[in-house]
Structure formats: structure tokens, C-alpha cells
Specification:
The chain is an alpha+beta fold. Helices cover 43% and strands 13% of the residues.
């Protein structure tokens, strides 16, 4: 008969401990499913499961890998099994000695992984042994991890088998620990149902005691057989007496403190005989329709329940030991499931609760689902409405809760897009359509709560003012130039003008003015309306003036040639409309002499005009592009955990920064040192008022550091080879999740907006 996986794991740990003289922990995983794992590997178990379904296939059989540098964790590939060994002391290379022992356990591991799990007898139903501590014991007073894990479960509510499963300690070790502390008087064994009792002699008598009448011959023989190996049935069979009479004598001997009674704990789990096992039908596992109801939250913080918790919170938090599912919590407390989820979400965000889930990729999805679906007033109202019509029994209430927890149909995406677009157009009417589409695509992927926060932050940001309609004070300034513009239309001088320039029309100077002609009429009206928002930009004024001068050229073509230097002077801008009618009176006399000198000059002024037009257009487009990028960066502040955000180049210059806090975080003196520490992978960095942040993850594409005094975390993500984003996260935020969000924004900025042109 093949060995059980627990027994094989215990043998491997014992063999490796003899070789290394260190405590060795083991995990055995197949196709992402944990077959066995020591409790010390809890913090690495998700990494091992992810490695098993990804990079594990690239290893050859009997090959090894070290997934974490600086950690004594080694992975071995045995066919399709992942065997991980871990030690807290020593060196990584020592774990490779396991390869010398692989052949000893390879066949057992193959059989245990392929064979169905053994069907245990119903001994746990017929009789259970439950150890219970009889005195308060400090679990940190020099105990091993196995002893601490076992004693933590010796509360009188867990059977031996439950302790083996939850503590993930081999059965033999559990029995030895229980027996050891039972002898010390720290715990006692309680039982329920049919169990085997073992009498143990605590007082020995010589043979002469029988002759002296100190003890009867029958009691003497019984005392000799009470060696801890024989049960009551064994003694009755050997002495050929009835169990009823034997129990009467044993009770008397126990009262006189000659023996003590204890329970038999089998060294190995009894299995069903072959003939019974054939009749057992194993039902296939079916995934629960609501997996959220079967998660088992774990309370990771040491909390004093005198801190002001309400009654429901106290009841739920006391039961979060990793052994109770949401359904169990409901049956025990009778608190509505919606309220239970609300309590779990509240304290999970504080870092007090950990939610273990076998599927690593669903952790973030579950957290978002709990936030957006189960903790909303609408769903709570629906639940209360439905639950109010049901009988107040646990079964019917649970069915109601399950129906309320079913996934509610999401709002139509098209309708949601229309609502977002309408809101953006009402508040930011000048935003380009392309920018609106990109913003809506980003918002539609978020939950309703996060979407509203991010959109409000974007609309209320200072950088969004350029997309708003100009304020009312700017309106009266528009009519003044508007009345001046129609003035040139009144004079009938334009008709006689084309008669005189008719002869030079076919000449060479005509092509250059043909290009700016379409800009003459449409460009004039927008100038007064755009002057409001563009006026504060420093670089805009020198670019507008040359372009406006170029537009005046075609209306007074003969005057341009003798006065090319005057085009650079800003004085011409003060009277652009008056010069159009003025040159008509004077040009006829100087036209003949100016004609021969004109041909060499036209190409020279034409080129700078074209350059200024292109420069002004590119600068305006670049300004819009930069503003769009900054608006997109500001959207990150919609994440509640982010307090500060900065765009920094690798020279240490802060390109852009914004904050939610009362004062702007001054880190200008520390940015260059931060970049150097990042590149050198230093263990800590300093920012602000000499605040130290311990680095918890550093890579070329990511830096995450935290402050142990509660100042929060910092997350830096590169955009490209010139810029990176630095964010400050509050102490309640999950820096790793924030890093994922910032990395997505950085990638989209680099790909969609071309941030390499920002500098």
C-alpha cells in the first residue's frame, strides 16, 4: 500500500535535518495544487504555486532553481511534482544535498501523487480526542514552531486530525508533542464517543507487597501491565477477566493514585480495509456557485477587544482564525452576510485581516468585487428587502443571502460611456474628442466608486482649466475688436486694388502668399477668444506675433519687399487692420523702381515665415500634448491611497508635482540621491525632512520603500529613459497594488502620448 503524502513529507524533513543539522520545511505542489506545505512556508506558498504553473515547465527533470535571492528556498522538479525545501539558517547550496536522497523517495512520491487520497475510517465521527491546555502558556518561551503551532490549537475544540491538518505537522510529531506536554501537566486529553483508554502505572510495587497485604495479587498483575502500551481491552484479554470488572479495579487504583488513565493516540491514521474501501464511492469535487462564501479570513493583528469595537465586529473578529468560512461565521453569529463582508473589508484594508485564496490571480478581483458589490447601500437594501419576507431560520436566511450575493448585472457599457461623455462635455467643453475617448476608456475599466473619485479629481484639477469656457469677464472684451473688424469691409477700395496688381499677378511672388491666404479669414476671429486662456503662457506671445505679421503680407504685397526688416518688429502688431487700406494711395509711384529690386528678396522672407508657422503650430500641439499628459497623470490622484505625485527626470529635476496634502512635499534636494540609491539598489533611501524609507523591492523598472514609523510608502515607476513617476502612498495603502496601477499609467503615457517628446 502506498504511503500518504504527509508521511513522505515527514520522512524527507527528518532525513534532511540529519544532513543539515537545521530545521527543514517542505512544500509539495502539483499543477498549482498544494499537496503538503509546512506552516513556515505560508509566506512563500503563493509564489511557489505561481512558479509551478509558469516557469516550472522550463526546468528539466531532477533539476533545481532558487526563486528568491538571499532566501534559503530551493525548488526541485521531480516529474510533474514541485518539491520546495526551506531553512531559516545556513546557505542555499546546502539544500542541494537533497538530490542525493531523491531516489529514496521518488517512487513513494509518484504513487502518492497519482493514487487517490486514502479513505479514512469514521473514527473521527465515532470517537474524537481533543487536547486542551490546562494552564496559560506563552507560545514564545523557547518553543519550536511545530510545538507553538500544535499548542495554539489545543483549545478543546480541535481533534488530533484537525490539528494535523491545520498545523501542517506530521502525525508522529503531533503525537509526540501532545504526549510531552501531557506528562508536564500542561494539557489534558478530552474525548467524545468511542475511544481506547490506556492505563499507565505511576507507582510500582515489589513482589513482597502482595505477601505483606499492601496490594492484591490481581491489582499487582494489572499494575504490571499498565506500561502505556496495553489498552483496557488488551489487559482484560491477557488476564482473562471481564472488562466490567477490570474497569472497577482500575477506577479504584486511579483513586488511590496508583495509575492514571490516558487515551490512546494512534501513531498512524487508520485506513479503511480493502473490502470496505471498494464500496466507497468518491464523489467528484464541484466548484461552489459562490466561492466568496467559502473563503476563510485570518486575523493577523494582535487586537485588544477593549478598543471600542461594536458587538458585531467583536463577534466576527474573534472567529477569524483561518478555520471558519463566511458561511460558518453566519451560522455562528447570525449576523447578515452583507454586514460580515463589510466588517472584513473594513479591517482588511487596515491590514488586520488576510484573505487566503487558492487562485492567486483572483485576489485583486475578489477585493474589488467585495468593495463594489457587497459593500454598497443598494445591495444591502435589496438584501434586507428580500430577507424580510423569509422565515428567520438559518437555512432560509442563508439561501436569501446567497441569492443576494449573486453577481448583479452591470450597467450597459454604452449607456455608461454616454453618461461619462456628457458629463465631460458639460464641464470641459474644449477638451479634444480624442482626449475624451482615451479618458473614457480608462474610466470605464474602473469600479463605480473609483471612477467617480478619479473623474471628480480630474475635473477639479487646475490643469483642466484650459478645457473650460472662458469666464464672463472676457466676453465684453470680444465685441470691441469685433466692431473694428467690419471696418475694412466698408471701404470700396478693395475692388480697385486687384486692377493695379493684375499685371504682377502671374509673376513669381504669387505662390508664397497663396499658402497663408486660407489662414487670413478664419484665423482672425479666434485670436481674441483664445487670448484669454493662452495669455499666461510665456512662450506663446513671441510665436503669435510673427505669424500674425505673415498673414498681413498678402494684403499689402508691394510694401513687403522694400521693408523686410520691419517684419520682426512687434510694433506692426498694434495696427494690423489699418495698414491694409493705407498702402493703396502710395504704392503706384514707387512700383516701377521697386520691381527690379524685388525678385532677389521674396525667397528670403518666405522661408522664415514658413518656419515660424510650423514652429508656432508644433509648439501649440506640444503644449496641448503636455497638458493632456499631465491631466492623465493627475487622474492617478483619484486613487484614495495616493497622497503625492511627481514627474521627475533622471537628472533630479522635478518636471511636475501635485499633492492632496495641505503642503507640497519638498523633495527637490533629495531627488538626485534617490536616483543614485535606486540605481545602486541601496537598502534604504531618504526623502523630505531626512525621512528614512526601507527598500522592500528594487528593480530597474520599480522601487518600493516604506517607513517603519508610519509615514507611508513611496513607489517609483519609470516612464521611459528620461522620466519616472514618484508617488507617496499612505500607510494603509498596499504599495504593491499601487505600483501595478502606476505602471499601467506610465506605460500608457509612453505609448499613447509619446512622453519622450516632453523634454
Amino acid at each position: 500500500m502506498s504511503k500518504h503524502i504527509d508521511a513522505i513529507a515527514g520522512e524527507i524533513m527528518g532525513e534532511m535535518e540529519k544532513l543539515l543539522l537545521e530545521r527543514v520545511y517542505i512544500a509539495i505542489i502539483k499543477e498549482g495544487t498544494v499537496l503538503y506545505a509546512s506552516s513556515a512556508l505560508d509566506k512563500h506558498i503563493e509564489l511557489l504555486k505561481l512558479f509551478n504553473i509558469t516557469e516550472f515547465q522550463q526546468l528539466r527533470n531532477l533539476d533545481h532553481a532558487f526563486p528568491l535571492s538571499g532566501t534559503n528556498l530551493a525548488i526541485f522538479k521531480l516529474d510533474d511534482l514541485l518539491v520546495a525545501l526551506y531553512t531559516k539558517k545556513g546557505y542555499q547550496g546546502q539544500l542541494l544535498s537533497f538530490k542525493t536522497k531523491v531516489n529514496k523517495y521518488l517512487n513513494d512520491l509518484r504513487q502518492a501523487a497519482v493514487a487517490p487520497p486514502p479513505q479514512y475510517m469514521e473514527a473521527e465521527d465515532r470517537g474524537q480526542i481533543r487536547p486542551k491546555l490546562t494552564q496559560t502558556v506563552s507560545l514564545t518561551m523557547g518553543m519550536s514552531e511545530d510545538e507553538s503551532a500544535v499548542l495554539k490549537l489545543c483549545d478543546g475544540n480541535h481533534s488530533i486530525r484537525e490539528i494535523i491538518v491545520k498545523a501542517r505537522v506530521p502525525r508522529k510529531n503531533v503525537v509526540d508533542i501532545v504526549r510531552h506536554f501531557e506528562k508536564k501537566g500542561w494539557l489534558k486529553l478530552e474525548y467524545q464517543g468511542d475511544v481506547e483508554i490506556i492505563p499507565i502505572s505511576i507507582k510500582k510495587f515489589p513482589e513482597t507487597a502482595v505477601r505483606l497485604g499492601m496490594i492484591s495479587k490481581k491489582s499487582y498483575d494489572i499494575n504490571e501491565l499498565c506500561n502505556g502500551m496495553n489498552t483496557v481491552k488488551d489487559i482484560a484479554r491477557k488476564l482473562i477477566i471481564s472488562e466490567r470488572e477490570l474497569n472497577r479495579i482500575l477506577k479504584k487504583m486511579e483513586k488511590n493514585k496508583i495509575i492514571k488513565m490516558t487515551l490512546k493516540i494512534p501513531e498512524e491514521e487508520p485506513v479503511v480495509p480493502a473490502e470496505i474501501r471498494e464500496e466507497v464511492q468518491v464523489t467528484p469535487l464541484v466548484e461552489a456557485p459562490n466561492p466568496e462564501l467559502h473563503i476563510k479570513p485570518i486575523m493577523t493583528a494582535n487586537v485588544s477587544f477593549t478598543m471600542g469595537f461594536d458587538k458585531n465586529e467583536e463577534q466576527v473578529l474573534k472567529l477569524l482564525d483561518g478555520s471558519h468560512s463566511i458561511i460558518d461565521l453566519y451560522h455562528v453569529t447570525q449576523i447578515p452576510i452583507i454586514d460580515i463582508f463589510g466588517i472584513i473589508i473594513k479591517y482588511e484594508e487596515k491590514g488586520w485581516i488576510r484573505i487566503p485564496i487558492d487562485d492567486f490571480m483572483h485576489i485583486v478581483t475578489l477585493k474589488e468585487k467585495l468593495k463594489s458589490a457587497f459593500d454598497t447601500a443598494e445591495l444591502a437594501a435589496v438584501y434586507q428587502k428580500v430577507a424580510g419576507k423569509q422565515v428567520a431560520t438559518s437555512d432560509t436566511a442563508l439561501e436569501t443571502a446567497i441569492s443576494a450575493l449573486e453577481e448583479t448585472p452591470a450597467a450597459d457599457e454604452t449607456l455608461e460611456r454616454e453618461n461619462l461623455q456628457q458629463r465631460i462635455q458639460e464641464t470641459l467643453p474644449l477638451m479634444p474628442i480624442a482626449a475624451q475617448t482615451k479618458l473614457i476608456d480608462k474610466l470605464i475599466k474602473l469600479s463605480a466608486h473609483s471612477r467617480e473619485g478619479m473623474l471628480d479629481r480630474l475635473i477639479n484639477s487646475e490643469s483642466s482649466n484650459k478645457f473650460r469656457v472662458p469666464a464672463t469677464p472676457a466676453v465684453p472684451s470680444i465685441p470691441q475688436p469685433a466692431y473694428v473688424i467690419p471696418a475694412p469691409t466698408a471701404p470700396p477700395a478693395p475692388p480697385p486694388m486687384p486692377r493695379e496688381p493684375a499685371p504682377p499677378a502671374p509673376t513669381i511672388p504669387q505662390p508664397p502668399p497663396a499658402t497663408p491666404i486660407p489662414k487670413l479669414e478664419p484665423a482672425a476671429p479666434p485670436l481674441p477668444s483664445q487670448a484669454g486662456p493662452i495669455a499666461p503662457v510665456i512662450d506663446e506671445t513671441p510665436l503669435i506675433k510673427p505669424s500674425s505679421i505673415v498673414e498681413l503680407g498678402p494684403s499689402s504685397e508691394p510694401i513687403i519687399y522694400p521693408l523686410p526688416d520691419d517684419l520682426i518688429s512687434p510694433k506692426v502688431l498694434q495696427s494690423p487692420l489699418e495698414k491694409a487700406p493705407m498702402p493703396k494711395l502710395a504704392p503706384p509711384p514707387p512700383l516701377p523702381p521697386a520691381a527690379p529690386a524685388a525678385p532677389p528678396t521674396p525667397p528670403a522672407p518666405a522661408k522664415p515665415r514658413a518656419r515660424t508657422d510650423l514652429l508656432s503650430g508644433s509648439m501649440a500641439a506640444e503644449e496641448d500634448q503636455i497638458s493632456e499628459v499631465l491631466n492623465f497623470i493627475d487622474s492617478l490622484l483619484g486613487i484614495p491611497e495616493i497622497l503625492y505625485l511627481a514627474l521627475i527626470d533622471y537628472g533630479g529635476t522635478i518636471f511636475y508635482q501635485t499633492t492632496k496634502e495641505a503642503e507640497l512635499w519638498d523633495i527637490s534636494k533629495d531627488t538626485l540621491k534617490l536616483i543614485q540609491n535606486w540605481q545602486s539598489q541601496a537598502p534604504s533611501v531618504y526623502l523630505g525632512d531626512n525621512i528614512k524609507y526601507a527598500v522592500i523591492k528594487t528593480e530597474p523598472n520599480m522601487l518600493i520603500a516604506t517607513n517603519v514609523k508610519g509615514f507611508g510608502h513611496i513607489v517609483t515607476i519609470p516612464i521611459n529613459e528620461k522620466l519616472f513617476i514618484l508617488t507617496k502612498v499612505n500607510k494603509e495603502g498596499d504599495a504593491l497594488l499601487i505600483a501595478d496601477d502606476v505602471a499601467i499609467v506610465a506605460k500608457q503615457i509612453n505609448e499613447m502620448f509619446g512622453t519622450d517628446q516632453l523634454i
